[in-house]
Design brief:
single chain; 2 domains; about 30% strand
Length: about 160
């Protein structure tokens, strides 16, 4: 009888140990997955506007001349996240005067809505990206002149010592 009690308490101790270990491991795995998800979302979750802003800050931009620019990205801001679509924009006097959105079939449509900057003036372009544009129906967007991004600076080719020969 003493053997049964001893055996039962050993089994109970093993069960409690395994249950605690499983909870701990499951909690550890869950926490790791949450941290990985947050890390990936911060890397992959960068919206198109933030990626282009960073590139223009690092590399700079060529001057955006008065003309119709046929390859621009229009970044629509919704709930703090930018969604980019392809389009074209007409620039006069350094200001955006019209925006066209491109469809899947490669046709364009003029964005008929009136738009201004926050000061109710025509939006200007700084370092390859327009200032924030607000349409008459309260949409917020930016125009990114992707072809005006300067190329990456050349880097020197690194060589090793005689062991690399």
């Amino acid at each position: 009888m003493y053997e049964n009690v001893k055996s039962t308490s050993v089994q109970l101790a093993k069960f409690v140990y395994l249950k605690f270990t499983c909870k701990f491991v499951c909690m550890k795995v869950t926490l790791t997955l949450i941290l990985m998800t947050l890390g990936l979302s911060s890397v992959l979750g960068q919206d198109c506007l933030e990626q282009w802003k960073k590139a223009f800050e690092e590399r700079g931009a060529y001057t955006v001349a008065d003309d119709i620019h046929r390859k621009v990205y229009i970044a629509f801001i919704e709930d703090g996240v930018a969604n980019c679509v392809l389009g074209k924009a007409r620039v006069e006097g350094g200001k955006i005067v019209s925006i066209f959105l491109q469809y899947e079939d490669a046709t364009y449509e003029l964005m008929d809505l009136k738009f201004t900057n926050k000061l109710k003036l025509p939006p200007v372009i700084t370092n390859g990206i327009s200032e924030e544009i607000i349409t008459e129906d309260r949409q917020h967007l930016y125009v990114i002149f992707v072809e005006k991004l300067k190329p990456k600076q050349k880097e020197y080719k690194v060589v090793g010592g005689p062991d690399d020969l």
